[in-house]
Structures are given as C-alpha cells and as structure tokens.
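re the bet — no i am not wrong, look at it urself. input seq straight from the record:
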Amino acid sequence: MIGRLLKKSSTNQEAKERYIKEMKANENEVIKIKKEKLNGVIIRSKANWSEKNEKSNKYFYGLLKTRKKTTLFRKNLVLASSQSTLLSNIESKLNEAEIYSLDKKIDKTEIMNVFEESPNNKSSGPDGLCFEF
C-alpha cells in the first residue's frame, strides 16, 4: 500500500514538473511575441530613440496613433466641385479617332482576326489567353 502511494506521488510530481516546464515555455513564447509586436510598433512609429532594454509601449502606441490621425488626405476636405474642376483641366491625350476606336463595340470579325493572328503553341498567361492583344 505504501509502495503504491509513493509511486502515485512520484508520478504526480513528474506531471507537475512537466506542467511547470510547459507553462514556462508558453510564458517565454508570449514574451517573444510581445517583443516582436513591440518592435513592429517601434518601426511603424518611426521613433528616433528607444532606451536600452526599457521601451515605453504607451509612448510608441501613442505616437503611432497620432501619426495615423495626421494623414495626407482627409475625406471631408475634398469637395465634389473641386474634383470636377480638376478633371476639366486635364487635357485629353487621345484624338477624336482614337476615342471613337476605343469606345466602339467589339464585333465578331475583330475577335476572329485577333485569334487568327495569335501565335500557336504558347502557354496561357494569367488571364487565360495565350497571347497579348
């Protein structure tokens, strides 16, 4: 009876030791992930300094948050009328014949001509066609 109790307590002790080792490994993994995340925040914040072995997470997260707010373009600052004014001042680089050629519908003969002029024995590209238009 005492032998069984001693055996049971030793297996419990081994289980506890395995559990403690696993917990320490998990804790080290969490610390590693936090450091990686902090390094990413430091890089994204473009801070010029960080103290040796003492980094203020609050500082870097605050700096990153501030930089996100100060964006180059803001939705509320652009008026629809200014967009149309901008577009009206852009000169067209196409002449009337080119515009007509691009706007007209594609007919079957044009498609057949492209297929007939395409090279044979070519592998298809990302669009599934084996040639360029």
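see?? The CA atoms of residues 21 and 27 lie 10 Å apart. told u. also The first helix runs from residue 2 to 45. so pay up
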